[in-house]
Design a protein that fits this description.
alpha/beta; 44% helix
Length: 334
């Protein structure tokens, strides 16, 4: 398994004319082969399986069937994160995709940044099965210390959910037609740069276009403005998420739904991005504090953060300590 995943023989780190002698000594001392570095990398979950297979006591090793269950890829429906400011139509987008009302629009008064609700959607009128994570974004370009700690907890919940469902296929950045605001740019950075490390395809969903003669023309006229603001999607749709009074916008609504479903189908056919829980969470904790919390507001007590991580995020104490060390350190030292 090590050789298949890394392209290198086990014990390839031993440089010797008689490596088999050194290997026997290493095994007798309870040491296994070194984890290969470089590319292709062995992810944590696969390395854990290898380590279990190398345990000295046979009864502690997984059976062949267990290993098969662990290494065979599960068939996961594509996972998409929907994000944006309050009032841009995220809940309406979920309903548009589902073809029915799954959620009510919310004022967001009781919500906090990165709080998410998962909606599994299976359609009968279109070959699509997806998981949608309707996620609360920033509603101002900064947050206070309490908001930071709450966001940290919600970030952990979201990351764990994505990891447990196989990874993430795409980000749906929902915005209202108009000018790019500072908060909009910060939301882009929060989800695309910090949470997903620029590794997940981002689609721009432009709403509130029901009164525009040609919805797609909005992108033609505003693309330069959007991209010069640092927001560069891999694809986009210009839509309406409402049917209007007495279904005045019914035709445009159906056109919009078709465009969104086709976009999801295309994005879902791409490779998913696997979630490394510890790295994603450490990066979010570090970047949230650096970018969104005023310097003086983040005299963040390490003891308070430790309590949050162990009690609300339910991390083991040693994992919480390691995470705090990562947040303090530069990413090059992770």
């Amino acid at each position: 398994m090590l050789q298949i995943l890394s392209g290198r023989h086990p014990w390839s780190e031993i440089i010797s004319e008689r490596p088999e002698l050194r290997i026997v000594v290493m095994i007798s001392e309870g040491h296994g082969p070194k984890r290969p570095d470089g590319y292709p990398a062995i992810i944590d979950s696969d390395w854990d399986i290898i380590q279990r297979c190398l345990l000295r006591k046979p009864d502690l090793r997984p059976s062949a069937n267990e290993v098969l269950d662990l290494v065979c890829p599960h068939t996961w429906p594509p996972n998409f994160i929907i994000f944006g400011e309050i009032g841009v139509g995220k809940s309406a987008l979920v309903n548009l995709i589902a073809g029915e009302q799954l959620t009510e629009s919310s004022s967001g008064a009781q919500s906090c940044t990165l709080e998410s609700t998962e909606y599994p959607v299976t359609l009968s009128d279109f070959p699509l099965h997806v998981n949608l994570f309707d996620t609360m974004g920033l509603n101002s370009p900064t947050m206070n210390n309490a908001g930071y700690l709450d966001a940290l907890v919600k970030a952990h919940e979201l990351i764990v959910s994505l990891k447990n469902r196989g990874g993430v296929h795409g980000l749906l950045f929902c915005i209202k037609a108009g000018r790019v605001s500072n908060t909009m740019q910060q939301n882009y950075r929060l989800f695309y740069e910090f949470l997903c490390q620029e590794r997940v395809p981002l689609a721009l969903v432009v709403t509130n276009l029901e009164n525009v003669e040609d919805m797609d023309d909005w992108w033609t006229k505003n693309r330069v403005h959007i991209e010069s603001s640092g927001i560069v999607p891999v694809t986009h749709v210009c839509i309406t998420t409402i049917k209007g009074y007495k279904n005045a916008y019914q035709a445009r609504y159906l056109e919009s739904r078709k465009k969104v479903l086709n976009m999801l189908k295309e994005l879902g056919s791409r490779d998913l991005c696997l979630v490394d829980e510890s790295v994603w969470f450490a990066r979010m904790g570090k970047k949230l504090g650096e970018i969104f919390v005023p310097t003086k507001g983040l005299g963040r007590s390490r003891q308070k953060m430790f309590q949050i991580l162990t009690k609300r995020c339910k991390l083991r104490k040693e994992d919480a300590v390691h995470l705090l060390q990562r947040i303090d350190a530069g990413e090059e030292n992770w």
